[in-house]
Amino acid sequence: MSNVTIKDIARMAGVSHTTVSRALNDSPLINPETKEKIKSIAGSLNYTPNYSAKSLVLDRSYNLGLFFTTLRQGTSPGFLYEAIKGVNEIIKDRYNLIVRGIDDYKSYHHVNRKSFDGIMLMSQSAADQPFIEYASDHGIPFIVLNREVEMSGVVNLIPDDQSGAYRMTEYMLRCGHRRIAIVEGKAGFKSAQARKEGYREALLAYGIPLQDELCIRGDYGLESGYKAMVRLLALPERPTAVFCSSDDMALGAVKAAVERGLRVPDDVSVAGFDDTGYSAFTTPALTTVRRPIEEMSRAGAERLMALLETKESAERKTLFHTELIVRDSVKRLNTE
Amino acid sequence: MSNVTIKDIARMAGVSHTTVSRALNDSPLINPETKEKIKSIAGSLNYTPNYSAKSLVLDRSYNLGLFFTTLRQGTSPGFLYEAIKGVNEIIKDRYNLIVRGIDDYKSYHHVNRKSFDGIMLMSQSAADQPFIEYASDHGIPFIVLNREVEMSGVVNLIPDDQSGAYRMTEYMLRCGHRRIAIVEGKAGFKSAQARKEGYREALLAYGIPLQDELCIRGDYGLESGYKAMVRLLALPERPTAVFCSSDDMALGAVKAAVERGLRVPDDVSVAGFDDTGYSAFTTPALTTVRRPIEEMSRAGAERLMALLETKESAERKTLFHTELIVRDSVKRLNTE
DNA sequence: CTGAAAGCGCTAACAT
DNA sequence: ATGTTAGCGCTTTCAG
User: Fold this and answer.
1) Using one digit for the tens of pLDDT, what is the confidence trace for B291-319?
2) What's the rounded Cα separation, in Å, for the pair A44 and A24?
3) Which residues pair with B96 in a beta bridge?
């Protein structure tokens, strides 16, 4: 029932508990034979160190936080999934991974250096700026993923959303589309802004003015894509292509089009962003932009662990490349 | 920078640290005025208790584990998402939620009563029986969700998969289908077996023999649904309806059918299981069985917390009802 | 109502 | 190479 302590082992081995502690921590000062003996006793007694005690004296909690802006809305299941998977793969059982939406906390009181050795913030919105400042003020080692932050000295891993959106829009333009709408992401989310910017830039490069009526606000969710498409289809002059800032919204948009008797991509083209596992399996398969969440999360975990061990990390800002994934939901209007 | 301890507060308040401890823990033995004074000092100093110290003396870690059989395959993003969301909603900041796939552990060494006050196991497969026994042997309070376990005395919350599958199959039969295939879930997963059983039972009730060629093994993933459908469509006599044991597989199945020029549901009907957020937005909208993961997770968190506080929990086994969700992917062949 | 003292299990000087 | 001692920050007898 494992209430064995180093003192018990010490007694059995006929040494002091200090020696046991050292042996178990592989101190080089201990006689190899003694060490072997102690370890074997520990093994046979099924000894497990009491991490609360270790934590107290070593001033480490062995907890790592993986925090999201919110778990309620705007965070897609696929996003959460890939992030957790990526991080867990790296930290193995060296740390406990604590997953939380920032908005689950009434106060940040429980978030402190004693309780978290480090924090990875999957930042989605500027709304978590206060949290970032809190962490910074309280000297908690942290890194920010997914959203670019201005703060200096912060390790910041971000996907290159803007150029992804640029390439997608450019692709649509190359396919001959000229009237291209965008369904934007959640208001206040940096990623939403970056994707819009890439879209704008591409249009500009082709000398096409940005039209307000073709920019519809969404919130990254399925439903909002649906509603946006309904509005777009009601326009006097319909777009020939719709760039949705998330795959989920693209799904919703396709749904709206199909319900109104239109065919995708024959009557209207639709593209997404994210490349969730589903996008290859929708009908039609979704042309989208792949966002390397899992890779970014793995890298984040590595960087955070390095930061905890060496107390510093070289590169501050790292861009993760997005990739255009061409499937079947955007029609080629020309032969180029 | 919050390295304030109760001793600092004691000094400032002119009392002993014992009194501070008691005051902060709302002990009734402390003079209300003293208490107020101490609390206000603590507040102004921005005191945060050191949870490692509390943990050591109180023998509680304030950690709750949410464990999955695996995070690599067979666990859908939606499943993970709803489970985490449900649990976090209940535990708020009273506990840390640690999310892990059991197969992330090389050994269970780090899983013990000192490190986890309690564990919720989202059990998907009999493969985690050893883990359950481990937890039980080591006296870690735990409850098992999602999969029925034989072990007595274990709090066990499970969705009623079998009757969900039964109702779905029955619905297909009522629609006039007689040649109904099933794409089964991951081998070894209890849920896969239960869904198959519900299917079998319904066929039996209608006097239809189970045909091996209509039972295809899948693994709950998109791809496996696709492959299964390919095989079914190659049959000399095709099924008129295909019951997939997960929405993901249903998506794959629809994909395969459409690629082969068939229309769903006009040429072949497809149904799913789970009712993930996506199922209403696929084309056609998926007829499926809703599985109340979030509710079950919330209930699980409540039960676990009750178990930790009162050291016992009344009901051992609770069934969560699944629900038939009729949408557009199953065709009515008759007029009944 | 408050304080002194002990101790949770561990690590880390400081001896030797 | 090993032991002695102190102490991490907190709660909890036990005394008063």
Assistant:
1) 999 999 999 999 999 999 876 666 788 99
2) 14
3) B63
Nucleotides of C under 7 A from a protein CB: 1-5, 7-13
Q: What is the DSSP letter of B282?
A: S
Contacts of B86 in chain A (CB under 8 A): none
CB-side exposure of B334: number of CA atoms within 13 Å?
A: 9
The CATH number given to B161-291 is 3.40.50.2300
Helix (H) or strand (E) holding B290: strand B288-290
CB contact under 8 A, A78 and B80: no
Residues 222 to 241 of B: which have CB under 8 A from any A CB?
222, 226
Mutation target for A interface from B283, B293, B298: give the one with most A CBs within 10 A. Answer: B283
Of A1, A52, A81, the CB nearest to B61: A52
- Are A220 and A189 within 8 A, CB to CB? yes
Q: Same topology for domains B63-159+293-320 and B161-291, yes or no?
A: yes
**Would you state the pLDDT for residue A30?**
85
Average pLDDT over chain A, rounded to whole? 92
For residue A268, the model assigns a pLDDT of 97
DSSP code, position B5: -
CB of A316 closer than 8 Å to CB of A302: no
The domain over range B6-58 is classified in CATH as 1.10.10.250: no
Q: Span B43-58, mean pLDDT?
A: 94
Superfamily of domain A63-159+293-320: Response regulator (3.40.50.2300)
Domains of chain A by residue range: 6-58, 63-159+293-320, 161-291
B224-261: per-residue pLDDT in tens?
A: 999 999 999 999 999 999 999 999 999 999 999 999 99
